[in-house]
Amino acid sequence: MEILQSLKRRQFLFEELVKRDFRKKYKRTILGMGWSILSPLLTLLVMKLVFTQFFGRTMAHYTIYLFCGNLLFHYYRESTSTGMSSLVNNASIFTKINIPKYLFLFSHNVAALINFSINIGIFFIFCLVDRIDFSWRFFLLFYPVVCFLIFNLGVGLVLSALYVFFRDVRYLYDVFTLLLMYLSAIFYSIESFPALYQKCFLLNPVFVYISYFRTVVLAGEVPGLLVHALCIGYALVAFGIGAYIYKKYNHQFLYYV
Amino acid sequence: MSDPVQEKRKVVIDCRDVSVRYLTGDFKSIGLKEYILRRIKGDYHVTEFWANRDVTFRLYAGDMLGIIGNNGAGKSTLLKAISKIMVPSHGTIKTRGRIAALLELTSGFDGDLTIRENTYLRGALLGYTRDFMDKKYDEIIRFAELENFQDHYFKQLSSGMRSRLAFAIASLVQSDILILDEVLAVGDGSFRQKSGDKLKQILSSGVTGILVSHSIRQVRALCDKVLWLHRGRQIAFSDDVGKICDDYMKFLQTKKLPEY
């Protein structure tokens, strides 16, 4: 009974935090919400216009290929870079009231997750228009999505903690995500690289999740065991490190804010 | 000395030799690059100081403790340790029951949210349930005298209104331990009267309370035990509130600590 009560309280708190983040993020405008859906589509459009010349000629369904990459990368960037400020933004709360600090990050992530879901919907519409064969394999996509969610939460935990200690992490991270984008094979195919280089791409978690999507959607195949293992492995490692940092520094954050 | 009456009551807060370390220094909001540079040059200094040193006291159910001391005596740090926002570096703090800590009430509100939204958020932060908030919302607004401002943004409120709202939400708290940090004096004359009455009502409900206040008059009126801190050290802990307060007043004038 006591546990149920405290769970209910925690749920209420989480809902209120999510509502607050939404209200602040979109400033109560319809356009605010629309913009976060529009921006990945615009990126897609520009990439399509520019890169079709270079990479799209030899590839069937190049738009869908691009969309897979953009869809996942955009979610990654939104989730982690908004998550980064979750602790610092709520410093005035957690230095006064004893509540679990990860709730701030999780609530920041809800908005990104909702945008991601809407974008997946749009993605499927694109697939339909582009005459992609829908098969039972599409249900497998739940697996990378859940893993990716956990991975992003983990990265968010690490970044939000780092950001408390070092405020210039924001700029360094912006540079990092830009580089990561070029390394994630969003608009090019890795097949023109030597086999060894192709293996190296698997070191990039974001690429692994993207390639899972592409294997299912474009190739119509079930990805291999290695990719499955990497999906869950990266997620657990990232989340594990994040949880460890939060646990270890739980009572030290307040010195730095 | 064992007081037979107190022996029977439950120990609610038990602080033993509590020391809390506080860090200050160069580290605050320096960047990663700067941090690495300073580390290489050996120019990175973190100073620790003991915000609390060997503080020991015990409170029984229904006790009301007043904590007095100058600025920088470690009062707020001790409250944070008891409410588990900070952990003691040495010593132990045992508490029994739910704790509500009302520290610097007006901070933590969000200027871009309306009064209504802020009220619910604060309620959630203080550990209330949604049902409870739905039931009490009107009462809160009425108590804070903000009926006409419910859908205004919080940033539009005057500071008096802010503290009225903060107090109105916090005063609904139902906990076994209540920790109050300078929250008593809010609003103008009439509200001050009202909030004072409300507070007395809460305190008489059998809650165990800790009150930090610079108003010695208040400590005398409300507390049955007193803890005097000076630069982190415990000068006195006693249930002779009158004597300790007298000594403290004397100290404020002569700047000489009494010997106990």
**Compute the gyration radius of chain B: what is it?**
21 Å
Say what oligomer this is.
heterodimer
| Number of strand segments of chain A | 0
Structural class of chain B: alpha/beta
N-to-C span of chain B: 16 Å
What's the overall average pLDDT of chain B, rounded? Answer: 86
Biggest sheet of chain A, open or closed, and with what strands and sense?
Answer: none
Report helical residue fraction of chain A. over 70%
Number of strands of chain B: 9
Discrete helix count of chain B: 9
* SSE order of chain A: HHHHHHHHHHHH
Question: Strands, helices and their partners?
Answer:
The complex is a heterodimer of chains A (257) and B (260).
Chain A: H1 2-26, H2 30-56, H3 62-83, H4 86-89, H5 91-94, H6 102-129, H7 142-165, H8 169-183, H9 195-200, H10 205-217, H11 225-249, H12 253-256
Chain B: H1 4-8, E1 11-25, H2 32-41, E2 46-60, E3 64-68, H3 75-82, E4 90-95, E5 99-103, H4 115-125, H5 130-144, H6 159-170, E6 177-181, H7 189-203, E7 208-212, H8 216-222, E8 225-230, E9 233-238, H9 241-254
Parallel strand pairs in B: 3-7, 3-8, 5-6, 6-7
Antiparallel strand pairs in B: 1-2, 1-4, 8-9
Keywords summarizing the entry:
heterodimer; A: about 260 residues; mainly alpha; 12 helices; about 75% helix; B: about 260 residues; alpha/beta; six-stranded mixed β-sheet; three-stranded antiparallel β-sheet; about 35% helix
Question: How would you characterize the overall build of this protein?
Answer:
The complex is a heterodimer of chains A (257) and B (260). Chain A is mostly helical. Chain A contains 12 helices and no strands. Chain A has helices at residues 2-26, 30-56, 62-83, 86-89, 91-94, 102-129, 142-165, 169-183, 195-200, 205-217, 225-249, 253-256. The longest helix of chain A is centred in the middle third of the chain and has 28 residues, at 102-129. The radius of gyration of chain A is 19 Å and the shape is globular. Chain B is α/β, with parallel strands linked by helices and 260 residues long. Chain B contains 9 helices and 9 strands. Chain B has helices at residues 4-8, 32-41, 75-82, 115-125, 130-144, 159-170, 189-203, 216-222, 241-254; strands at 11-25, 46-60, 64-68, 90-95, 99-103, 177-181, 208-212, 225-230, 233-238. A 6-stranded mixed beta sheet of chain B has the order 5-6-7-3-8-9, sandwiched between helices. In chain B, strands 2-1-4 form a 3-stranded antiparallel beta sheet. In chain B, helix 4 packs across helix 5 and helix 5 (130-144) packs across helix 6. The longest helix of chain B has 15 residues, at 130-144. The model of chain B has no long low-confidence stretch (mean pLDDT 86). The A-B interface holds A 5, 8-9, 12-13, 15-17, 19-20, 23-24, 27, 92-99, 165-169, 172, 251-252, 254-256 and B 22-24, 27-35, 80, 83-87, 99, 101, 103-104, 107-108, 110, 112-113, 117, 120-121, 123-130, 133.
